[in-house]
Amino acid sequence: MGCFPRFLKLRLRLKRKTTTPGLQLSGRLKAWEQCPHCKELFGDVYDKQVQLSTVLESAAQCSRCWALGQILNYVTDLRSASTVLVGSIWHDNTLEIGVIRPGDTFETAPGYKIYEIGDRYKGERPLLDPIVGLPIAHKATHVNFRPIRTTPEHRFALAKEWLSECVTSHEACNEHDAEYLLPRRLLDISDVEHIRLVNTQHQELHPRTGYVALSYCWGKQGNLCTNTANLKQHAAGIPMLSLPSTIRDAVIACKHLCQRYLWVDALCIIQDDPRDKMAQIPQMADIYSGALLVLSAAGSSGSLEGCPLGPPEMQPSPPKIIGLDFSRYANSDNETSDYRETIVVEQMEHERCRSLPGHWAHETFDQDPTDALNVVEERGWTFQERFLAKRSLYIGKGEMSWTCATEVQCECRNPSPHIKTEAGDRVFTRRYGINHMSVNKLFSEAELSKTYSYLWSDIVATYSGRLLTQFGDRVAALEGIAVALQRRWPNIYKRDEYFFGCWLSLLPDLLLWHVSGEPVSEQIYPDLFPSWAWPSCGRPVSFISWVWYGVDPKLWVELLDFEVKEPPPAAVFGQGGGTVTLRGPLIPVKREVVTYDENEEDVVYVPIDTQLSFMAGGASLDHGDGDPGAERVSHLALVGSYPFKLQEKNKQLSCAMLCLVPITGRQENVFRRVGMILLPRTKQAFLGAEFQRLLTSHVTDYNLT
Fold first, then answer.
1. What is the predicted pLDDT for the residue at 22?
2. Where would a tag sit more exposed on the chain, N or C end, judged by fewer CB atoms within 10 A?
3. Which backbone phi and psi does 420 adopt, to 5 degrees?
């Protein structure tokens, strides 16, 4: 179930009051408190499905079932006999309900947030309405909605306001406004019928010339590219009508924003010139960080699709304000006969239900992080384009949205008040870019290096699940972010220590990756990168969190040496071979097949040293269960464990070990990585010193390729 995060199951049940200020209630239970049907929709988690028809039939006896029927009539067809409901009371004391209609699944059904405004209460409010049991929201959020303007001119006028305010008054957005190099080429879009490719060095443009950089998906075919054959032609002029739809729409958007220059990778880099491409890839930090604005064609899956402003039918639905008369139920308790309340029904949303900033992407009550509409957020190259931007404007399927270091905005909502830390830093729900990153108080001052390795691991974990047409671009598509971090924190992220998506000074932490999810490319070529480096894995990766958040973690490896192998001439930027020499516990193991219940088999790797038999475990393989190397695992390399205190006795909560296969034809102790074992809590308790003693005889130098 992708819906609410699993930690909701741990959420404390809301305490419901039985008395209400301003109303004299009878002491007996209300009908809705005894109703077995709507009760399942007002619990802590989505754990029961209730037939809509059952709720409607119960309306004669239960005031809450009656109220739900009245409300849902505004958003769904009550006549469908097979529609089912799933609901839960959320942290803001609203009912969040999914309406699973015929043809819907749990993942695709629409969701709604329902609450009373409760304006009639003075002072303390009850959590639930005493008559019909609907939740009274802590804070009504419908007042934040604003109607989306109707014409492109008016809609882009709002985007111009965001841009102007950011450039002129956002101190944080201009704090790191360094002297970035202009791109080698830009598109001059000032003409009505043609755009023209200009060489910025020959044109003698001012170094601070403003330009917009486009972030978009190429798609599988149809993109217009600059190559050696048409370079002169593109310099003379490219007809607007010959542009792919997405690029043409981007030009139109820039004209609305009164911008003259646009950078588009397909047109500004000579695509069949390897030297030009190799020179431009390291400049991505300058190109996207130096842009006045990054324009994201967020709703487009390819260059031929276009990125027009979202039409009304795709836009966020405004909240429905319903006046509901409860007097028929109030009379039954001898209360006031004039009993009306304002009910709000909002299309459901949550911070985790979309990839784009702002309000809207694809709102269902299943709050999966996958953005089903704005596919640009699935692609590998677009990750750094957003991350490096000083400010970004997204044209999504439904609406435009905006991020900068100061604001997160969208068309359909007024901006919310800022939330800040004690140090005065703005708190963002998500880190949309480098200007949302902070090293303040992440970890103790004594472990500042942990902060920097954590920041990089977080970037990699987010990026690694994005799709790439060419698997060989796995490092190249992250190069701009690496360069930006080098500039921001040059004493930590050093240029001569960055290889294959890893920083050598932080390498022990960055060895602890493991795979999850589906392949990111149709063809995976692991040998393009060293086996110890995360890019060699063609799937999303995660890092072991206790390296940073565990109590007393211990890293057992030390980097002794690194040797990089010269890549072949045809290699893409970032590809090649590299050998790390490490010192740490290297434990010989044997492979055993274990049979569990119902004849299920699993493979475990058991240390030959019987004193370490408690370290046996199954592996998460880097390239899936079909990797033939898994049968030749000969050693486990212990990289980390926690907790570890030298003079205290405790059970190891976890040990992280690399599964290694010897390289045939090489000298002794040369291996490649094929997986990782993450052991759960050991049954045996050790003094830290005793655990260290057991490992001492296995500490040796070894090489990973």
1. 32
2. N
3. -130, 155
- Averaged over 49-53, what is the pLDDT? 93
Nearest to 159, CA basis, from 389, 392, 406 = 392
pLDDT given for residue 565 in this prediction: 87
Tokens standing for 209?
């010339």
- 207: preceding bond cis by omega (within 30 degrees): no
pLDDT: which is higher, 282 or 437: 282
- pTM, two decimals, is 0.80
* Neighbouring residues of 192: CB distance < 8 A, sequence distance ≥ 6: 240
Q: What is the maximum span of the chain, computed from C-alpha positions, in angstroms? A: 92
- The answer to whether 264 and 287 have CB atoms below 8 angstroms apart is no
pLDDT for res 609:
95
Yes or no: say if 25 and 130 are a contact pair by the CB < 8 Å rule: yes
If you average pLDDT over residues 490-518, what whole number do you get?
94
| 329 vs 68: CA distance, rounded Å | 14
* pLDDT tens-place string over residues 379-420: 899 899 988 999 999 998 888 989 888 888 888 888 766 656
- Given this model, what pLDDT does residue 201 score? 84
| Residue among 199, 194, 192 at smallest CA distance from 231 | 199
* CA 142 – CA 145 distance, rounded (Å): 6
End-to-end CA, the chain: 39
The CA-atom distances, in angstroms, between 301 and each of 220, 246, 254, 372 are 9, 9, 20, 11
Amino acid symbol at 110: P
Residue 443 corresponds to which tokens in the numbers above?
């970890």
Q: Which two tokens stand for residue 662?
A: 């010897």
Q: How many CB atoms lie within 10 A of CB 565?
A: 11
2 compared with 247, residue with greater pLDDT: 247
Look at the alpha carbons of 154, 372, 462, 519 in this order and tell me if their dihedral is positive or negative: negative
How many other C-beta atoms can be found within 10 angstroms of the C-beta atom of residue 66?
A: 23
Lookup: tokens for 610 = 């019987």
91-95, 338-342, 374-378, 501-505: which is most confident: 501-505
Report d(CA 356, CA 587) in Å as an integer: 46
DSSP 423: T
Q: Which residue has the tokens 């930027």?
A: 573
CB atoms closer than 10 angstroms to residue 123: 6
- Spatial contact of 214 and 248, defined as CB atoms under 8 Å apart: no
Q: Which two tokens stand for residue 611?
A: 């004193």
How many other C-beta atoms can be found within 10 angstroms of the C-beta atom of residue 297? 28
Q: How many contiguous H segments (helices) and E segments (strands) does the chain have?
A: 17, 30
Over residues 603-628, the pLDDT tens digits come to 899 999 999 998 999 999 999 877 77
- The answer to whether the beta carbons of residues 491 and 521 sit under 8 Å apart is no
- Other CB atoms closer than 10 Å to residue 196's CB: what's the count? 15
Place of tokens 């003259």: 260
pLDDT in tens, 104-155: 887 778 889 999 998 777 778 889 988 889 999 988 888 888 899 999 999 9
Q: Which residues lie closer than 8 Å to 350 by C-beta, 6 or more apart?
A: 4, 367
Beta carbons within 8 Å of 105's beta carbon, 6+ residues apart:
none
479 or 359: which carries more pLDDT confidence? 479
- The long-range contacts involving 685-689, CB below 8 angstroms and separated by at least 24 positions, are 685/649, 685/650, 685/651, 686/649, 686/650, 686/651, 686/652, 687/646, 687/647, 687/648, 687/649, 688/644, 688/645, 688/646, 688/647, 688/648, 688/650, 689/646, 689/647
What's the pLDDT band for 207 if we cut at 50, 70, 90?
confident
